[in-house]
Amino acid sequence: RSSDLNAPQTLDYRDGMTVEDVIVLCGGLRESASRARVEVARRIKDPTSTSYSPRQAETFLFDISEDLAIAPADKRFVLQPFDEVYVRRSPGYSEQQRVAVTGEVLYGGEYVLATAGERISDVIKKAGGFTPEAYVKGVSVKRKLTGDELAQVESMLKMARDSRNTTGRDSMAFENLEVQDFYAVGVDVAAAIQNPGGNDDIILRDGDQILVPKYTGTVKISGAVNYPNSVAYDKKNVKSYIAQAGWYKQSARRRPFVIYMNGKVASTRTGFFSRRYPKVEPGCEIVVPQKMERNGRGLQNVMGMMTSTASLAAMVASVINLAK
């Protein structure tokens, strides 16, 4: 009845069976098992009772020795039919959790999170700090989806697929759509280093990847433009870069957004009489969204707009919007 046995299972009852017997028959304890809290839950059975009782089970707690030594006969706890034995995970057991640092640091590689709550600044310090070639403003963090998160994303995609009732090319696009294991965490690592423990100095978790790039003096323009490309960064505004990509397509939704190297995203703000465009920085990507068509080709438009730097969350939200 516990994952902290090597082979948890339901066993046939035998006269005189003890807790130690059950543990041995289930392959023994895992390394993570607690020997200080083994619980037996027993059914309430009173065939002579004439009144209702709120009690549903009787419980017994034990601690067991490391070598599972059998207690003397007069002290053995003998199990009864339908007893359930629970072996808990030890609160003092933790597996190593690792993060990876790559790129422009002195000592790149994997690092173990030695204590709970370690942050970006702690791991960068372990890696010896940045090299002179590092573009600190462009440092990004990628995070691996947990099993629960991955299941949630796949469930949302299935919901979009079912409610859209896709056919033809849209259906094929859905079938070929793969969910990536990692997603970008938008964070300003330069601010995290300057203010350890601050809001930008996020707590890391197992599997995180910190990527420290060199300076990239280009800007990428993608999406619904006539000539998607990359051009040299020269401190111009968004509209100037879109002009260098052949201007908007007729199908473009003229509210571009910018994805920065550190994973943060900024969108165009629309006022009554003007639009406020995001700031352009070296290494960023300007993405021009496509208008959503209702002629059965909406999914193709979304997937055509997706880029290698687009976040998983943005992709899923776009797909879900098609199903509304």
Summarize this entry quickly.
With 324 residues, this protein is an alpha+beta fold. It contains eight helices and 15 strands. A five-stranded mixed β-sheet has the order 5-4-8-6-7, with helices on one face.
Protein architecture, described:
There is one protein chain. Residues 302-314 and 316-324 have low confidence and may be disordered. This protein has a five-stranded mixed beta sheet with strand order 5-4-8-6-7, covered by helices on one side. With 324 residues, it is of the alpha+beta class. The chain is built from eight helices and 15 strands. Helix 4 runs parallel beside helix 7 (298-305). 23% of the residues lie in helices and 22% in strands. It has helices spanning 19-25, 120-126, 147-164, 168-176, 189-194, 238-244, 298-305, 312-322; strands at residues 33-43, 57-62, 84-89, 98-103, 109-112, 140-144, 182-185, 209-212, 218-223, 229-232, 257-259, 265-267, 269-270, 275-276, 285-288.
Return the structural class.
Answer: alpha+beta
Order of helices and strands: HEEEEEHEHHEHEEEHEEEEEHH
The biggest beta sheet is recorded as: 5 strands, mixed
Distance between the termini: 43 Å
Shape descriptor reads elongated
Number of helices: 8
Sheet-strand content, in percent, reads 15-25%
